[in-house]
C-alpha cells in the first residue's frame, strides 16, 4: 500500500511537470529544438547527478519538442493524450504478450484492432495482423512472409525483390538480412514525380533476368519517405498478379489516407496487397514504436516463423492468442492498446480529419512556395511531406546555400526542418505532423530564411 501511495505522489508530480511542459511547448515563439553539440550534451549527462525531478527537467529542456508548432521535421507522431495514457498503462502492466497468459488483454486487443484496420484497408474480413516494434521490422517480416510463400516453388532459383528506387532503406536492409545481398534487391526506376512507372517495372524485370534472379515480391510505397509520393497501387497489384509476385505495401507513413474519404483514392489497390505495413507512431498520434503488419491471408502470418509445425499448429489449429508465434519479438509492449485508444469511439473519424488537415496544409505551403520568387518545390505534395529549396544567385552553389539555410534554422530553433537528397540534389524537407502548425508560421519560416540569406 505504501508503495502505491509513493507511486501516486510521484506520478502526480510528474504529470504536473509534463503538463507544464506541454503548455510551454505550444508557444510558437519559444524554441522547438534547443540545439547543442553532441559534446556539450554528453558533457552535461556525464556529470549529471540530480534527483528524479531534475533529471526529467533537464531531459525536457534538452530535447526536441514534437508538440511545438515548429516541429515540422521527421515523420514522428505528435502523440495525443489517448496514445500517451495507453503507453503508461502498458509500462505499468509490463505484460510480455508472447504467450497468452502474459498478454491476455494485449493479444485479444491486438486481434480486434488488426481485424478492424484490415477492413478499413479493404482487406477481407478473414484478414488479421500483428504488431511489431517499428516499420523496419514489419517490412522485414513481410519480406520473410513473401519468401515463405513463394520460395518453396522456386527451389534452386536465385531470388530477388523489386522495389521503388525511393523506398525507405529498411527494405534494402531487410533483403540483405535475408542473405540475398545487394543483388537480391532490384530498384525500380521512378518517374519524374517519384512514383513507380510501368516502364520502370519492365526495366526492373529485364535487370532481374540479366542477373539471373527470379522476382518473388514487389513493394509499393504509400507513400515514399523523402517526397511523400504514393505509388500507383492498382498498377502494382496488376503487375504482381501477372508475374505471380507477393504484393507488399509499405504504408508506414501514408496508410492513414484510408481514414479519409477524400484522400483514400491515393491508396486505391491497397486492398489487393498480401501484406501492409502501417506505422501508427507516424500519423496515428501514438508514441513509438507501434507498427501494424496486416496480412490478407492469416495463414501466411503463421508460416513465416514456423520452425516446427506441431509447435505452431497444435491440435486446435493456429493459435492467434500467442503473438510470439508470428513475430521476431518475444517480449513486446501492448502496442495494440495504443491503437485502440486512438481509434475507438470517433477516433478514426478524427484521424481522417487530421490527415486531411495536414495534407491540405502541405498543398497550401507548396503553392505559397511556387508563387514566391526564388523558391522551388521538388514535386507537388501528395501527402504532408514537402521538399523545397531556395534558388540562389547564379554564382552560389545551390546545395551549399540550402544547407546553410537549414543550419541557420536549426540554430534559431523555432522550426525544425530536415533535408534529403533527390537524384543527387539537396532539398529542404518538412513533414507537417503537428496539428498546431499554421501556414502563417511556415511563411514566417521562409521569410526568416530569405532575410538572412
Ligand atoms: C516508408 C517508410 N517505411 C519504413 C520506415 C521505417 O519505419 P521505423 O522507423 O518505424 O522502423 C519509414 C521511416 O521513416 C518510412 O518512412
Explain briefly what this protein structure is:
The protein has 453 residues and is an alpha/beta fold.
Question: Explain this structure to me?
Answer:
- The protein is α/β, with parallel strands linked by helices and 453 residues long.
- It has 3 domains: 2-65, no CATH class; 86-348, Type I PLP-dependent aspartate aminotransferase-like (Major domain) (Aspartate Aminotransferase, domain 2), CATH 3.40.640.10; 354-452, Aspartate Aminotransferase, domain 1 (Alpha-Beta Complex), CATH 3.90.1150.170.
- The protein has helices at 2-25, 38-47, 52-61, 81-93, 104-120, 135-150, 169-177, 198-211, 233-242, 280-283, 298-303, 309-313, 335-343, 347-371, 398-412, 439-452; strands spanning 128-132, 158-164, 185-188, 213-221, 246-250, 275-279, 291-295, 375-377, 385-390, 418-422, 425-431.
- A 7-stranded mixed β-sheet has the order 1-7-6-5-4-2-3, sandwiched between helices. It has a 4-stranded antiparallel β-sheet with strand order 8-9-11-10.
- Strand 2 (158-164), helix 7 (169-177) and strand 3 (185-188) form a beta-alpha-beta unit.
- Helix 4 runs antiparallel to helix 13 (335-343), helix 5 crosses helix 13 (335-343) and helix 6 packs across helix 7.
- The radius of gyration is 23 Å and the shape is globular.
- The model has no long low-confidence stretch (mean pLDDT 95).
- Pyridoxal-5'-phosphate (PLP) binds at residues 75, 134-136, 139, 168, 170, 225, 250, 252-253, 279, 291.
